[in-house]
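Supplementary material to the annual report.
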Amino acid sequence: MNLTDKFKANPALLWSGVALIACALAVLPFVLAMAGTTWVRVTNLAILFTLLALGLNIVVGFAGLLDLGYIAFYGVGAYTYALLASPQFNIHLPFWIILPIGALAACVFGVLLGAPTLKLRGDYLAIVTLGFGEIVRIFFNNLSQPVNITNGPQGISRIDPFSIGGFSFNQSDIIFGLNFSGPVKYYYLLLLVLIMVIVINLRLEDSRIGRAWQAIREDEVAAQAMGINTTRVKLLAFAMGASFGGVAGGMFAAIQGFISPESFVLVESVMVLSMVVLGGMGNIWGVIVGALLLSFVPELLRHTVEPLQRSLFGRSLIDPEVVRMLLFGLALMLMMLFRPAGLWPSKVRKRELTEE
Amino acid sequence: MDIFLQQIINGLTLGSVYAIVALGYTMVYGIIQLINFAHGEVVMIGAMVAFTVIGWLAANTALPPLAIVLIGTIAAIPVCVAVGYALEVFAYRRLRHAPRLAPLITAIGASIVLQQIAMMIWSRNPLAFPQIIPNTVYAVGGATITLVQLAIIITSVAMMIGLTLVVYRTRLGVAMRAASQNAPIAGLMGVNVNGVIAATFMIGAALAAVAGVMVGTYYGIAHYTMGALLGLKAFCAAVLGGIGNLAGAMLGGMLLGIVEALGAGYIGDFTNNVFGSNYQDVFAFLVLIAVLVFRPSGLLGERIGERA
Amino acid sequence: MNPLLEVQSVGKSFGGVEALCDVSLTIARGEIYGLIGPNGAGKTTFFNVLSGVYRADRGSFRFNDAPLNVRAPHEVAAAGIARTFQNIRLFGNMSALENVMVGRHVRTGAGIFGAVLRNAATRAEERAIHERAWALLEYVGLTARGNDIAHSLPYGDQRRLEIARALATDPLLLALDEPAAGMNATETATLRSLLERIRADGTTILLIEHDMKLVMGLCDRVAVLDYGRRIAEGAPAAIREDAAVIEAYLGGTLA
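Predicted assembly:
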């Protein structure tokens, strides 16, 4: 890529670019807050979905395993957090203890699902993961009897927000004369986690394990002949992806303060997959762009299409929710048909998906 | 009342529907090794179209109930066939030689698009089946079977026989079997492979239309989301029987229906009421996972566990 | 003789067809051992059984003075047997260098945590992998092609890249499945000198090959398979005279 070469030739250019982006990201929530706190919340959700997409990217993009039940891991993380930090059982552990527990729980589920199924051919694996996602949701929905664990379809509410000492993430604080509202605080926290996840992704890609994933994607038989224990390495991808989902789920529970099985339906898995596919499987920056696009565009549509319809026709003809879903569906179809490597494909994936 | 027999009857009813839908999956898989993930939505479209026609006829004419249901079904078939054909041409044909995951992803996209279109046409609310079929109940042993259940089972069996005759007794059937053995060679032998594949999709879609009417009539409602879970379970049934194998799909469907019904009927007793019948939907997936892990070839099929 | 690989009465059937029947052979350390036979004689099946792609129905293997329990291909590679494929199987969309780096997988150990934390040990390991991969590319004469995408390489280079990738696993036995297939005379000559160098540097070679000139000129000993049975074994000169072998080749294309 030219850009990389340019940066290599001129590190000052790179660093000034990074500084510029950092400043923009730092002031972003205050700019958004001017348009309404809603937009800060929308941004937070967008970052949360970017986290999920990056987690799924490890499974789908790096290791080439199609996981259609990914949202289940998100759900496991969310419920772990909710059960350990809410009036449901009257347990209130601090978030920095629960998040790792949630990641671990999701990881365990990932291994439990992956261990017996990862030798299956790709399309079967996809369907099995889909079934797994549904099973987990059905359990969330029904584990209210005979012992009330998940509170069934009503979900769990009054979940504790993140807090460290007296500093709580759901109240406003005035710091340096600036008003940091709850969503703004979460924004910075999410941004921090996002940066960490991006770094982890980049490092995984360029590592011994990352190369093994790529080799498996390219030719599983040859990869085995080179001494790669394919089942184990795939399981690693599954477990990693699941852990990311678990962390994102925990943050989701804390930020929303309320969760219910509704948030962990198949459509959500498909949405995250759309983000990965739209951006270009395997390419970290592409996946981020895909996740942000599919998070913001529906929101923008909600705020433009809806009023436009009302002013033109006097009523809402097409539900913005429908537009959102159509967008996901069409994104998946059209991308696979016409740009299978995504809007911003990784170099390798582009070669892989356009051949044959 | 004999609960066991009753659950068998209920299971056979639902199993017949699964079997008919599973045939659609298995035929397409047999020829192009593709999981037509959007097949469940074709079933949904069939139910919606039929219910619209049936609702209108019931309200505006004095035709006998059987005629109304038949006309509704006949109206649904061409619509489903068109949808099935469109899926093949627009969503899958370009990807026939692409990596396996590509058509699966388009299929998911297509099923979401179909659902949303159905929602725009028929709204979020379910369509209700008009009260036109007499609620006749027959006693069988210690259990009962309703007229609708009986009709569903008989229709399904008739369609299975019909399909078997098509596949083993007609030129089209020979072409289908040839294409499933080796499509390029079949093409060299003068079989119009694209035509055969399209025909397979269309036959599957026609079966799906009837399945849609059956399942809708059984539950009394049709809804734009009804296809997803039904399609998934039918796929499980196809895998259980051995995907690509017609008899396997029939057997798998019936078995899955019975497993589900018995599971739902007895899970409470077996688990001391820790789990109840609301876990019914779990069984299909457990069966699927168990089959794929322990006997990936299904009951009657060839081996599919290896990565091709 | 100091044996590296001892194969004891190995058999393998597919359905009713016996692809391998009671095949025994012994490969000594440091030799180039040829395995020849008409098409369909079971050479590739033997390869696949040895490398764990298929499981033998009968028989046993002894490798490097220990029983070799062939369960999965990756374990065979770990034990020290590396193979190439008849129809080249490179990681087509990775660079030549990356292909060889993947070959180091089995001799290195960095896991998820190493990858994420990039601690000193992991960085050192990565550096070593890099250096070793470049060294192997140089060894097979592909230094200039290191950053090229594997499937864009010319045919002969792909063959040599596959050998470099196999060598990256530090094998005691390098098993080559028709490495000269489809090569022109110049490429075959380059291959031949490469194989001689590999042997000279201490790696034992098992060679399946159709190019009789190459086999007869290169191998220390040769075994002949026909219809899944070993019909002869010995020095190239003896094999050339062997009646059963000539019979198997129908009057013989043996040079």
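Chain B touches chain A through 51 residues (CB under 8 Å).
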